[in-house]
Specification:
One of its GO terms (molecular function) is ATP binding. Keywords: ATP-binding, Nucleotide-binding, Transport. Belongs to the ABC transporter superfamily. This is ATP-binding cassette domain-containing protein. This protein is an alpha/beta fold. It has one domain: P-loop containing nucleotide triphosphate hydrolases (Rossmann fold), CATH 3.40.50.300. 37% of the residues lie in helices and 20% in strands. The longest helix has 19 residues. The two termini are 14 Å apart. The relative contact order is 0.18. The structure holds adenosine-5'-triphosphate. The site of adenosine-5'-triphosphate has 10 residues, from helix 1.
């Protein structure tokens, strides 16, 4: 578990009354919200874990928070500004957030070297003219240096992996490459949606250490309000225990309980959480 000095910082992301109702296929049955009026906030440098049984709304909530789904009710604010369609806050949030998925191979083009795949988000930012990420006068050496640095951060030797192809990589190595691809744009918010569940058990500890060290570096920022925040969705409570600061427990689109990770895992107040913990191995 990490500790984060967020006492004096403002939340980087706030969701208020977030609700999402998916259209059902023409049935008259009353529709149930996938996410039902959830309030959530994320502090700079904080790691928030969202846990809950399958279908409880974890992925939907995280996509609402990152502005990738439009809520049917409620609102998201990024750095204090409402995230409305086409707004500057929506563009900033899209630019400042990055995702790591369950299947790392889905985010690595099989035709590209790992170096190219990791560089691509930076190149795309350059094409969009996001000047803080990419300056036109930068040459290929700067780009290669940045890619090599981020590969080292995820414990992939650049000399070996820069020119490797996804088919050369194990699942764990591919997930590290996918994390590097997410980190290369220096996101303010990293969403990791079940980042370990498709990885061989023996490689999971390594990925966990990688994510822990990324969060530790982020927390060491001189200005805590500049730290990267992480939202992690995981069925694996061992992972949650080792990386999260705070846990939010979801059931049927609602928050059952939330609090500091050790409090929730050691002294859950709700029977739903107790059952969830009993079903998991810590
Ligand atoms: N695109 C969609 N269209 C219709 N219903 C959806 C859609 N996406 C999710 N749902 C429904 O919304 C509810 C919440 O789904 P969500 O994927 O957010 O849950 P989850 O907790 O992430 O589940 P899991 O752990 O299985 O990934 C579920 O009942 C799901 O079937």
């Amino acid at each position: 578990m990490g500790t984060t000095d967020v006492a004096h910082a403002d939340p980087i992301l706030i969701g208020k009354g977030l609700t999402k109702i998916y259209a059902s296929n023409g049935s008259d049955v009353a529709q149930k919200a996938a996410v039902d009026g959830i309030d959530v906030s994320l502090m700079p440098g904080e790691c928030l874990a969202i846990i809950g049984e399958s279908g409880s709304g974890k992925t939907t909530l995280s996509r609402l928070l990152l502005g990738q789904l439009r809520p049917d009710a409620g609102q998201v604010a990024y750095q204090g500004s409402p995230v409305l369609r086409g707004s500057a806050a929506a563009r900033s949030l899209a630019r400042d957030s990055a995702l790591v998925f369950q299947n790392p191979f889905a985010s690595l083009d099989p035709r590209w070297t790992i170096g190219r795949s990791v560089a691509e988000p930076l190149l795309a930012a350059g094409r969009r003219g996001s000047g803080h990420l990419w300056h036109r006068r930068q040459d290929g050496t700067d780009l290669a240096d940045r890619v090599a640095k981020v590969l080292s951060e995820v414990q992939l030797d650049p000399d070996r992996f820069m020119t490797a192809y996804p088919s050369d990589l194990s699942g764990g190595q591919a997930q590290r490459a996918a994390i590097a691809r997410a980190l290369v744009v220096k996101p303010r918010i990293l969403l990791a949606d079940e980042p370990m569940s498709a990885i061989d058990v023996s490689a999971r500890v390594g990925i966990l250490h990688t994510l822990q060290s990324i969060m530790a570096q982020s927390r060491q920022q001189a200005d805590p309000s500049n730290g990267m925040s992480m939202i992690i969705i995981s069925h694996d409570l061992g992972v949650v225990q080792h990386i999260a600061d705070r846990v939010m427990v979801l059931s049927q689109g609602r928050v059952v309980e939330e609090g500091p990770v050790q409090t929730i895992l050691d002294h859950p107040s709700q029977s739903y959480t107790r059952q969830l913990l009993a079903a998991a191995t810590l």
